[in-house]
Amino acid sequence: MTAMQEPTFLILTALASGPKHGYGVTQEVAELSEGTVTLRAGTLYGALDRLVEQELITVDRQEVVDGRLRRYYRLTDAGAGQLAERARRLRKNAEAAESRLRARPSWGLGRTADSSGAPA
Questions:
Q1: DSSP secondary structure code for residue 119 in this structure
Q2: What is the C-alpha to C-alpha distance for residues 14 and 22, in angstroms, rounded to an integer?
Q3: Element (H, E) at 103
Q4: Residue 59 bridge partners (DSSP)
Q5: How much of the chain, in percent, has pLDDT values that exceed 70?
Q6: Has domain 6-99 been given CATH number 1.10.10.10?
Q7: Residue 29 to residue 35: CA distance in whole angstroms
Q8: Alpha-carbon separation of residue 16 from 93, 96, 99, 100, 117 (angstroms)
Q9: Packing angle between helix 41-53 and helix 6-16, nearest 10 degrees?
Q10: What is the pLDDT of residues 87-114, one digit of tens each?
Q11: Which of 6, 11, 51, 81 gives 57 a disulfide partner, CB atoms 3.0 to 4.6 angstroms apart?
Q12: How many Å apart are CA 118 and CA 55, to the nearest integer?
């Protein structure tokens, strides 16, 4: 699989807790991302179709509600494996960033280092 984009990661994460229909996925993605990722219907259903084709999710069931078809999706074992691997890589990268930030010299407010690394 190519690099997993944030919306895909969040869609798989939303489905990790159990089957959801499209609107439920949209709501959970917004909650997980603290409102920074908003999935429009076209984007969501295009992503869901792609994830079904990649066998990372599958259609769990369908029902008719108010005359409209509501399709529920669930995470497959392959999707759970991809999600777990991506979460592991993100955690490793976040730990590396935090470690480097802790080791970062404190130059004071508004001060930068010159090319030698000494405070300007």
A1: B
A2: 11
A3: helix 77-103
A4: 73
A5: 87
A6: yes
A7: 8
A8: 22, 26, 29, 31, 46
A9: 70
A10: 999 999 999 999 999 898 876 655 555 5
A11: 51
A12: 53
Structure tokens belonging to residue 116: 């030698």
Residue 73 contacts residue 59 (beta carbons within 8 Å): yes
CB environment 32-67: b (16+ within 10 A), e (fewer):
ebeeebebeeeebeebbeebbeeebbbeeeeeeeee
Radius of gyration of the chain (CA): 20
What pTM value is reported for the model?
0.82
Q: What is the DSSP letter of 23?
A: H
Amino acid at 28: E
Residue type, 25: V
Q: Which residues contact 24 (CB under 8 A, 6 or more apart)?
A: 14
Q: State the burial class of residue 83 (Cβ atoms within 10 Å of its Cβ: 0-12, 13-18, 19+).
A: buried
Two structure tokens written together for 74 = 């669930």
